[in-house]
Each structure stands twice: as C-alpha cells, then as structure tokens.
Amino acid sequence: MFLFILKRLVQIVPVILGVTLVVFLIMQMVPGDPAVIMAGEGASKETVNELRENLGLNRPLYEQYFSYVGNVFKGDLGNSLKNNQPVLDEIMIRLPITMELAFFSIMITIVLGLIAGIISAVRPYSFSDISVMVVALIGISLPSFWLGLLLMYVFSVKLQWLPVAGWDSTAHIILPAITLGAGGAAIVARMTRSSMLEVVGQDYIRTAKAKGLKGHVIIYKHALRNALIPVITVVGLQFGSLLGGTVLVESVFAINGLGRMIVDAIRTRDIPMVQGGVLVASLVFVFVNLLVDVMYKVFNKRIDLN
C-alpha cells in the first residue's frame, strides 16, 4: 500500500506539468491584453508597454511558461494581475468554501444514490424501480444552473424557506448542495442498481438465501459490499464533476468560492489566477482518485493495487 501511494504521488508531477501547459496555452488564445486591462482603456501606449515589461508579458511564451512552472514547484503561484495579491493567498481563502460545498454535495450524491439504487435493485421492474429510474433520468438530464434557479425560485422566492444566495449559515448550504449533488445522485443510483442486480444473481447470494439468512442481512452485508466497487469509481469521478460544477453553482448562488474566482479571473484575463485555481482543483481531483483506489482495497482485499 505504501509503495502504491508513493508511486501515485510521483505521478502527480507530470499531471502538474500537463495542467499548467494546457491552461497556459488556452489563456494565451483568449482575446484581450492583460496589460491593457490592468492599465485601463484610457492608458497611454507607453504605460501599457511598461506594464507589459514589468509583468514579463513581452518575453517569449516558452520563457514565460518555464518561469511559471519553476515558481510553481517552489510554492509560488504568482500574483494576481488584477490586485497584485499572491494567488495562493486568494486560493486558500476561497478553497475551503468550495471544498465544503463539494463535501455536502457528495454526501447527498452518495446517500440518495445508494438508497435509490438499492430500492430499485431489491424490486426490479416494479413500480418503485421504474419511478426511481425515471427520477434518476430527469436528474441526469437537468442542467445544474437551471435546477439551481428553479430551486431558488421555489424555496427562496415563493416559499421563503431558505436564503436566496450567499454562504453565511447552514441554511445557505442546502440549495447549492442539492443543486450540485442531484445529478451525481442520479448517476450513482443507476450504477448501484446495475451493480446490485449483477451481484444478487451470484451463487454465494443464493447460498446465503438457502441458509435462511434474512433479506436485509443478505442485501447489506453480502450483496452491497461486493457491489460497491464500481459505485466507488463513479463517486470518485463525480467528485471531479462536482469541482467543475461549482463554477456554475457558485455563480448562480453568489458564493465566493474557487469556482467563482476562476470565472471572475477569466473575465479579467487574470492569467496567474486562472492557472493557480485550475491547478489546485486538478490536484484535489488527483488526491480524490488516490483515495478511491485505496478504498478499493478496503472493500475488497483481493484487489492488487500494484
């Protein structure tokens, strides 16, 4: 296990290089000059040129990239072009908010998805199974921003049960977490159903039934444990989707998290801020995938991680 984790940590290095290169090249193709944006539309050409020189924007692209990568491995993500503040400091303020939102969303994804999937698998092709799968299909199909606006309109504007936007209390978490977790719950429900139906047809399940074990013992102790492996994979992938979904959800609910920070940075062409935000989000996703691989071993001792 230790060697496996060490090997995966070493593999993070090419991931960092790949992410920084892709984001750097994409940001170079975005229209607009960061120096002009910082100096203002009415700034003179001399002021803009001086600003470009101070920021290093007049150097060749490969020099800018290698300089940035070298600073990244030193723990320096650069300064924001907008306010000249360290990018890492801004990320450390925004990241806990996004992680909190992602945590509650993934809990909704797991709990609702597993419950719905088990209900469908226990009574396949019944009314409850069909109903759950129809709801799951709707959940997968609904765009997160549209669902967020719908929930906001119903529960905040009409019923006035929950706050419209912000991130100041527990009540503010409910609607964004549901918005972000609903689609993932639908996917987990479908995967749980499929995996459970495959497992309950195995010989050891029939043997357990023949021994007279109670239905809930067979489902939760024998069937569910072995059916969780593909579900864990889906949950890990959904966490990555949640990090991407926070960009829209945080904008809809006016949450000052990492996703909204990246959106604002793209609008102002704040290249260091965009690169830093995407890099940190990618690293979080990599570590979540590592945790998923370790969970495989926890639920199935026969799996060889090497």
Can you tell me about this structure?
It is found in: Cell membrane. Belongs to the binding-protein-dependent transport system permease family. OppBC subfamily. This is Nickel import system permease protein NikB. With 306 residues, the protein is an all-alpha fold. It has a domain of 213 residues: MetI-like fold. The protein has 13 helices and no strands. Helix 2 packs antiparallel against helix 13 and helix 7 crosses helix 9. The longest helix has 38 residues. The termini are close together. The relative contact order is 0.14.
**Radius of gyration (Å):** 24 Å
Question: Could you say which structural class the secondary elements and strand pairing correspond to?
Answer: mainly alpha
The major β-sheet equals:
none
Average pLDDT value? 81
Strand percent estimate? under 5%
Number of helices: 13
The number of E-state strands comes to 0
How far apart, in Å, are the first and last alpha carbons?
8 Å
Judging by the overall fold, what is the CATH architecture of one domain? Orthogonal Bundle
Low-confidence stretches: none
Order of helices and strands: HHHHHHHHHHHHH
Tell me the overall shape. Answer: elongated
Indicate the CATH class of one domain: Mainly Alpha
Subunit structure: The complex is composed of two ATP-binding proteins (NikD and NikE), two transmembrane proteins (NikB and NikC) and a solute-binding protein (NikA).
Family: Belongs to the binding-protein-dependent transport system permease family. OppBC subfamily.
Membrane topology: Multi-pass membrane protein
GO molecular function: nickel cation transmembrane transporter activity
